[in-house]
Amino acid sequence: MSDPLARWVERLLALSDGIDRAEAEKFVRELYAAAQSDLDADKAESEFQREE
Question: Is-contact 12 19, C-beta < 8 A?
Fold first, then answer.
């Protein structure tokens, strides 16, 4: 399992009843993308503040 998201999918499947693999994979991908977007926005804001 070299894919870091696969590990989170497995954890979600282990903790959840009634969720199928495709739903778990979609949820983890969307959550990761949202978190990465937030981090990128925070980084851009920090860089902007330093430049002022």
Answer: yes
Tokens of 13: 């499947």
- DSSP conformation letters of the chain: ---HHHHHHHHHHHH-SS--HHHHHHHHHHHHHHHHHHHHHHHHHHHHHHH-
Token couple for 17? 């009843």
Output the pLDDT for position 51: 82
- Amino acid identity for residue 10 in this structure: E
* CA gyration radius, the chain: 16
pLDDT digits (tens, 9 = 90+) for 1-36: 578 899 999 999 999 989 999 999 999 999 999 999
